Amino acid sequence: MATDRHGDDPISAARRALVDERRQLTLDELAALAALPDEDVPALAEAAHAVRVAWCGDTVEIEGILSAKTGGCPEDCHFCSQSSRFETPVKALPLLSDDEVLRAARETAELGASEFCIVYAVRGPDERLMAHLERLVPLVRREVGINVAVSAGILTEDQAARLRGVGVHRYNHNLETARSFFGRVVTTHTWEERFETCRLVREHGMELCCGVLLGMGETDEQRIELLGQLREVDPAEVPVNFLDPRPGTPLADRPLVAAMEAIRWIALFRLALPGVILRYAGGREVTLGDLQEMGMTAGINALITGNYLTTLGRSPQEDIVMLKGLKMPIGTLSKVI
Amino acid sequence: MGAAFCTGCGRPPAACGGCARPSDPWRYCPDCGRWLAVQVTPTGWVGRCRGCGAEHHGSHQPPAGGAPVTG
Prior knowledge:
heterodimer; A: 2 domains; 9-stranded parallel beta sheet; B: 3-stranded antiparallel beta sheet; 0% helix
């Protein structure tokens, strides 16, 4: 590896900048780290873990997620089995009842989770869904005593204010991918519309959860571009999803991200966003397999446990055993400012 | 006794070599091959058959090499 003026290789230089100097890396520095050979990935992961501990501590936040309105979505996100535009085995179901959501929230709390995210497959909430949320969110908070996050698509200013008003702790709205690649995977709304909802979420005092999906055909340069754009929206939390190609979708035949490539990018996300809650999300089981523990020591400090929206995760008990083995306590997190 | 229909695509075993994935709940009824209305929750899933009315349950992905946890 080349060295800098301090005689440091690029990984040691990145660690020094972030841990000793508390200086953010530039996108050029991140691009140089992205280009390191595969044999440097374990050292990159180790540096990212040191940055995570220095900025966020060793606590891990656990969340459960529930699809409260599955399928039938009018949008055409090419990775998603819930779009009504593709012939997939995931069909539209009616909105879950309050009791069904409460039952899932209680199950989630019993797993040790501090966050429960209720997800709706919609472009954005209509008035019926807003009324449902205004009733449901306070009910879940009161009955279960868990932080409630919501994911219901594109918001107006008024809707963002109303959701904040009923106690939504975090609002999930993913950028998914870089602005320059977005039009290749979504055509029914724009990257700018997503960016604007992210801005509204923060402006109205909710924590922003803004995730990504890696493995859709984007280049390394576009992943670096995405890191810069994430810095602009300044999320509290970034869930990292890896594409699990869904039958019937336009991305059904994409290959999985290779496990060590996934570890490299987990580390790069931590090095780019040192104070963020970086969460393991969909696709980690199929992408990483036995390397899931390595991801926990490459920058991850939160995870979705149990099942996802329409697919199955591994047993929560396996996650608990993993965290105990790593001596990582479970607790709540918020972004380091 | 093996399923009469593939839970991944709903076809009879003779027409499908086994496309069901461990990361997916059953999508088709193993008894009649019709589509299941599937609700996934953090701790499990339930699928109700639109054809024969059977209800099927499961929990999570099996551990590596393990058998699917379904019923």
